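Hello,

Following up on my earlier ticket. Below are the two sequence lines again, exactly as submitted.
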Amino acid sequence: MIRGKYALTLALPKGRNLKDGYAALQRAALEAWHAEGLELPPFGAERALIHGEEGRVAILELRNADVPLYVDLGIADAGVVGKDVLLESGRDVYEPVDLRTGYCRLSLIRHPDNTGPIRRVATKYPNFTARVFRERGLVADIIELAGNVELAALTGLADAIVDLVSTGATIRANGLVEVEVLAHSTTRFIVNRQALKLKSDLLRPLIERLRQQSQALAEG
Amino acid sequence: MIPEGTRYYLPPEARLRRELAGRLTELFHTWGYELVELPALELYDPHHVLAERSFKLVDKTGDVLALRSDFTSALANMTLAFPPERYPLRMQYAGQVWLREADAELGRVREYTQFGIELIGVSSPRADAEILELAWEALRALGFAEARIEVGLPSLVRDLLQSTGLSGAQIETLRQAIHHKNIPELSSLLEAYRVSENLAPTILALPDLYGGREVLQKARELSLTDKATADLDWLEATLSLLPDVPLLLDLGRARRLDYYTGINFQAYTQDFGLPLLGGGRYDGTLLPQACGFTVGLERVMEALRLPSEAGVPDVLALDRQMAHRLRAEGKRVELAWTDDLTALRHYARERGIPFIALEGRLEEA
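Thanks for your patience. The regenerated structure is below:
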């Protein structure tokens, strides 16, 4: 139980958004929490699962898909996560800042030989995919895979896939075609509904700073 | 085995649940709210707010029944079936509701215990202030002196969105962006939908209009429609009746705009990420005029983090007369089941019962 132990608990995802997210938060925190004397805890290679000292700011290092859940249920007050994960999770959290990093897209990908209607689609994003198909009035079996989704299109397991694309190199290298972009994704700063109000002295200035940084990034 | 989403409540939790329930029932009673009991079995109604998510059963006639999933609509139906002689009508309820699908917020639970009140037949800032103050008293009675009630004004959001003249689908997209305080998206949507220069900055300001009572003043500085101004007047009149209740405001609250027609609110407590109670005004949705709130007992228990060990009796009694006397003094006394003193001492020591009452005297166990 970590309830009440830290001034603020932040959830960061392992993997591609960790470095950018941490850097953005650290920079914003430096100015936003100057008066409180708080800062982001150092984030070394140690094996701790919770970083930070009691009574100060803590960081939880989580699997990407777990970040919205930790924030929605209030274990973490705020977090950093890709919009793709947020779309899949359907969690009811505040999403006040687009950090404008980690750009990628969720796309419908097919083998060029597959031109008929889609009967079966494989993905790591089953909720998102089901929603898109439902909105278009399409009926298809959706199979959830744990990884290597391209393989489903190559082997004929599915006649289309929905997957994350950043440069498109993997897709092209395997002779697949990005048929349609279904959603664009960037890294977002998300906040728990209660925490935004009850810890607004810490979160409000942080959001303000993050927005300025993101604006500068957009104009830069 | 018990069904998924149900659970046993063991000591001491079951007792504490009863105790908290008693406090709420008593508090509501002192405010003039009369207790009613409603059937857990209802006739299935496809227009019910939670129709899709309720448990269904088939009656012997072949009719479909549903397990109660919401008290507010059940009370509304009762009021329509038995119209009261006069209004305002104040009612309180307590009991279980069931949902077929677990609610993401509540984890895997599918059987919930709710307590709440409804103030029916009046619509005024005074009535809104009454339920807000009672919600605050309920939180204090449950031991959440540090909790805060956050008030939103869905009517304001709805009136502003409707005056854009956009289609229902577009308004819904805007509502979601406001609900998530997603300013970048809201900003690009307002541009894409070509919302007028008068309204766009006001709508864009909504998500950040949260904080203390000063928020109201900030809202007044925006360019507002007549309807929106009237919504704010109502809220201001409500708040001015409650100078001593610590309230938070969030004018960007945009949940269930088709249901709430005035204020809505939730209560939060420090370091617990889920709301403790929720309510608001819903004139015309079920009844012409009604407002109220609901407290979720499971949520309250989780937030209170109560002791996990059951209490131990004070005395184990072989002497029944003495047991009577001690109980009258407020002691908790278990009766001995045997004359075998060795077995009794052994049992008392194992359970941590400090005394044995024997032949008119108390002995250490």
